[in-house]
Amino acid sequence: MLRTWVIVRCKTVPVVCQARLLHTSLPARSSAEEATTSTTPETQGEPKKWTPKSTRTGLIAVKRGMTSMWNDQGVKFPVTILQVADCQVTKNIKVPKPDHTVYHAVQVAAVNKPAKAVTRQMLGHFKKANISPKRYVKEFPVTSDAHLPVGTTLSAIHFVPGQYVDCVATSIGKGFQGTMKKWGFGGLAASHGVSVSHRSAGSTGQHQDPGRVFPGKKMAGHMGGNQVTVQNLAVVRVDTSLNLIYVRGAVPGVDDAPVYVRDAKKIMAQGKAYAAKGRTDKILPKGVDDLPFPAGTEELAKTLPSIIEAPAYRRSPFVPPE
């Protein structure tokens, strides 16, 4: 079993651990257990180490709803609960590009689905990966060192409390809407003489010059129902027993809809820039010393406390990304 070393200041319930190795934060095992499950990095090979140049795969989660949490100062803030349901690796992708580089990606699938409701093509794809049929399939670009064995089951501990993530989902459809609701227009004066045009868009084109409506003009039309990315959401809690991820803020979409969660691109790019300057203290957000690499697996989750929380100073809704 590949063991990933993760160091994070965490608060657990009921066990409290400070600045320990995540996979050793449980009570120490007896000597008999150590003898039966003795594994060393020398016998299995050194575990892969995350570096600022590495890009990990994302996860497919299911939005379960929203709730509220409080920090140590009593400040209330909203969180969205995402559940990682039967998320497994289905394929590793390596495609040569015209510029003589190689495109690397990991394809994952989540949420079991009855075989009778899956096409024959996808049944063959899942059978080749030796996993049960899934409802959602997504491909995440990675670096060459972040490939995973096909069939690996991913866990919510893939994301460490205190780090930031990007969430991609389909927003709630609003149908055909006017400019005031869709674009936030102020509308015309709702007074005498304006008649029933107080919610209209106003002038959309000029007279003779240029005599046309420019492309991209904000006008009435279909609102919502498209893919939206919300960036830099903080992970405030991870439940390893139920595979739940608590992220601060709102996530697009309705409940029970798929959400694609990945490491925050901007935060990781910022950490990579600091690493190039030798600022190792700013590679990851404060309180996070490392990330599970190449991924947080189901085996790693079994060695951790059931609930892991971010430090109090990372749970405040008023602390911006560093």
From TrEMBL:
Belongs to the universal ribosomal protein uL3 family. Keywords: Ribonucleoprotein, Ribosomal protein. GO terms for cellular component: mitochondrial large ribosomal subunit. GO terms for biological process: translation. It comes from the Eukaryota. InterPro entries: Ribosomal_uL3, Ribosomal_uL3_bac/org-type, Transl_B-barrel_sf. This is Large ribosomal subunit protein uL3m. It comes from Coprinellus micaceus.
